[in-house]
Amino acid sequence: MTDSTRDKPSFDSLRALRVERRGHVAEVILRGPGKGNAMGPDFWREMPIVFRAFDAEPEVRAVVVYGDGPHLTYGLDVAAMMADLGSALGGAAQLAGARTRLLETIARLQGSFDAVAACRKPVIAALHGWCIGGGLDLAAACDVRLCSADTRISLREVKLAIVADLGSLQRLPPIIGQGHTRELAYTGKNVDSDWALRTGLVNEVLPDKDALLVRARALADEIAANPPLVVQGIKQVMGFTADPPVAEGLRFVAAWNSAFLQSADLMEAVSAMMSKRTPVFRGE
Fold first, then answer.
1. Can you tell me whether residue 30 is helix, strand or coil?
2. pTM
3. Phi and psi for 195 in degrees, rounded to 5?
4. Distances 150 to 72, 133, 158, 172, 242 between C-alpha atoms, Å
């Protein structure tokens, strides 16, 4: 095996992601298997593997992330993740063991997006269709965001009686400001591509997904043509002041949710979602 072959890991066994290469640019395509590229166990396991590999591979100089099909992602695949979350949200969740397991689970999920942010190669998020919950966490962990005109974005966790705990509350304020972040987080409302451009969440809006990918690839190629170690140095220098507060914020929200996530309102949110009705929250 040659050194160049050894530097290029095989991603053939991936289930939630597909990796494609174009010269010095790697593309990561979200592909489910949940509906709307929902983020299930395979996604959370594979993301750190892929982005740590990109970080270590000299031939990769920039990364583009987008979704297979019309949407980036519907966010967390709640049904598929119940095996991981169930033991922490069950009747024994008031005990220290269950809360510790939940704390560890949250930290592990956070690590998937931490790997994106920590990757020394610039990452461009190409948003299209729905970008819900974890999709926004992923976008916030990237360096540059572009979107198509049909993009719809939601920091949806409040609707599920959950404090968003995978990075949006920590990474969005430096991008769009405290006020816009709080509005998204408090309301859980949907916003469109015009809102995203106006607030600085995205740098540019393209007419459709095809045009979006053309623009994202062109930007990645432009970045990849520059001295790679200098580009990586720019990313590390710009992240120097941002990274410690983000890490502290992620630890705090993980501890908060491990203590307070289980609630009557959470059970009501899940029940209402399953039965397709409007939840009634009581603050319990």
1. strand
2. 0.91
3. -60, -45
4. 11, 17, 23, 21, 31
